[in-house]
Amino acid sequence: MQNPVHMTNDPQLSNLLAGCRRGEVQAQRALFDKHHERLLAVCLRYARDRPEAEDMLQETFLAVFRDLHQYNAQGAFEGWLHRLAVNSSLQFLRRRNPLRFADGLDDVPQQIQQTTPHASEGNPEAVLYLVQQLPTGYRTVFNLHCMEAYSYAEIAAQLGISESSVRSQYARACKQLRLWLEQTFVHHP
């Protein structure tokens, strides 16, 4: 019988997780196949491009299989996976280079105007592409606050910067995105 701490209300998920904990490759593959697209979408928000997001995703699944014993079924498994994807992405960014916080940016660079995919209002690919063009620090703070709903204090603690820096970076990221969106959609009706 499974340890009650690791049981879920979904018997199929319980069996899958039990197989992963035993190191069964088929169970690990099934877990990956079931969740990789959603977790890749999380990683894409933190990454500069798709190859970097795929590296983040790989690290996320390494953490999933390494830390699966820590999932105690107290909350939704998908929420636990999401948190791991965010944390793995942040760790990846810290290892690659320290988060850099820019003082300001200018208009949309010409290359962004020319390469923004299907620039039209409401196209999430175009918006994601513009978010990916933000400096790493802006992008990270923007995602943590806007997409993950972390408070400024939580972000400051997570990134090791002051709360006022977080507020400033978030405001600058929003201002820059707004400017780029306006310029992109004006140039691509």
Core attributes:
189 residues, mainly alpha, 2 domains, 9 helices, 70% helix, elongated, disordered N terminus
Cα-based radius of gyration, to the nearest Å: 19 Å
Which regions are unreliable across 5 or more consecutive residues at pLDDT < 50? 1-6
CATH topology (level 3) name of the largest domain: Rna Polymerase Sigma Factor, Chain: A
**How many strands?**
0
Tally of domains: 2
What is the helix tally? 9
Give the structural class. mainly alpha
Helix content: 55-70%
Strand content: under 5%
How would you describe what is shown here?
This protein is 70% helix and 0% strand. It has 189 residues and is mostly helical.
Helices, strands, pairings?
Blueprint: H1 11-21, H2 25-46, H3 50-67, H4 77-96, H5 110-115, H6 124-133, H7 136-147, H8 152-159, H9 163-187
Helix pairs in contact: 1-2, 2-3, 2-4, 3-4, 7-9, 8-9
Brief digest:
The protein is an all-alpha fold and 189 residues long. Helix content is 70%, strand content 0%.
